[in-house]
């Protein structure tokens, strides 16, 4: 029982420690989930911003390319139309206009190149953020698996606790049954030990014996027994004497002393034996000596 109690205490301590660990891990997982959700929200917002910026850059690049092509088309068309009508004197301002248009086209090209580079950078940033989002999703999956493992562990701990409580209840019932059996055995043992006590023996003797059937031993019986023993040996008188002795023995054997002194003394002895209590028995430290004292034969008490 002490070992079972120690085992149950150890199991309870282990259950409490596991519960504390589970609570701490649950709190940590909740914090990580919150941080993960916040980070995912930030990443989604950043991704939306990058997509919007990319769209704006694409639109701006498209506008710039359209403008470049439009200015180039207008310039070439103007040159093609005005070339036959231009004189030598008017070549200088045309050159100046051509230079201005070329400068503008170069600026537009440079600007378009810068915008294309920015767009590429934005794409790279978007890919990088997408990788971060994927990594965060993988972490969330790992945390989810860990949470499932913790839930399974918690279920196993609960099942173990339930099995321990059931086993403890079975042990408690077995202990109750053993105590009941032990009490019953003690009662049976006490009844067996008390069966050889003085009052029980006196009551048994009183129930078995009848005072009316008690007969004193007369001298005639003793004489008849002696004569019978000696008669077998061939020692005796005549046939008349032997017949007289035989009739005397028969009369003595058929005679009853119901109200004689011997019956009264035996009855008084039985009453005195019944009046003896267990308190008057000798006190001994040894249980076996007391049992032997209680189980003495009735002849010793007589």
Automatic annotation (TrEMBL):
Residues 204-219 have a biased composition (Polar residues). Residues 277-286 have a biased composition (Acidic residues). Keywords: Coiled coil, Membrane, Transmembrane, Transmembrane helix. Residues 5-67 form a coiled coil. The chain crosses the membrane at residues 68-86. The keyword Heme does not apply. This is Uncharacterized protein. Residues 91-110, 182-219, 257-302 are annotated as: Disordered. The keyword Transcription does not apply. It comes from the Eukaryota.
